[in-house]
Design goal:
123 residues; alpha+beta; 5 strands
Length: 123
C-alpha cells in the first residue's frame, strides 16, 4: 500500500495560475463534493483540510481515507458503515494527487493506521 497526506489548504490548489486553475479547481471540487453516499459526514466535509489516503499499490486507486480538520483531529474515516467515501468514490488515482496540483507528502502505514483508530475513541 501507498500512503499520502493531501493538504487542501496549501500548495498549487490554492495558488494556481490561470493556466492550471481549471485542473486545480476540478480536483478540488471532486475532493470536496458532497455525495449522498456519506450520510454521517456530509455536514463535516467543509471542515476537512487534509486527507490521509491509502492506495492499493497495484491499482493505484484509493481504498481508505481519513479526513482531518485544521487542528489535525480525525473527523471522518471512510469507507466506514454507510459511508462510501469521497476520494475512494472518485475516479482519481495516485498520480492525480501529486504536485503541483496539491501539497502532498508521503506518510507511513503506522501513522495512517493510528489515525484510523482514533475515530474509535470518539464513538
Amino acid at each position: 500500500m501507498l500512503y499520502l497526506s493531501v493538504n487542501l489548504s496549501t500548495g498549487a490548489a490554492q495558488t494556481a495560475t490561470k493556466k492550471d486553475s481549471f485542473l486545480s479547481g476540478l480536483l478540488y471540487k471532486v475532493l470536496t463534493f458532497i455525495p449522498k453516499a456519506n450520510p454521517d459526514y456530509d455536514q463535516l466535509i467543509d471542515e476537512v483540510t487534509t486527507w490521509l489516503l491509502e492506495f492499493n499499490d497495484e491499482t493505484l486507486y484509493p481504498e481508505r481515507e481519513i479526513g482531518l480538520d485544521s487542528s489535525g483531529n480525525v473527523i471522518m474515516i471512510m469507507p466506514f458503515g454507510e459511508n462510501y467515501g469521497f476520494c475512494t468514490d472518485s475516479n482519481l488515482f495516485y498520480k492525480d494527487f501529486k504536485p503541483p496540483t496539491f501539497n502532498v507528502k508521503n506518510i507511513s502505514k503506522d501513522y495512517f493506521e493510528n489515525k484510523w483508530k482514533e475515530i474509535d475513541t470518539k464513538t
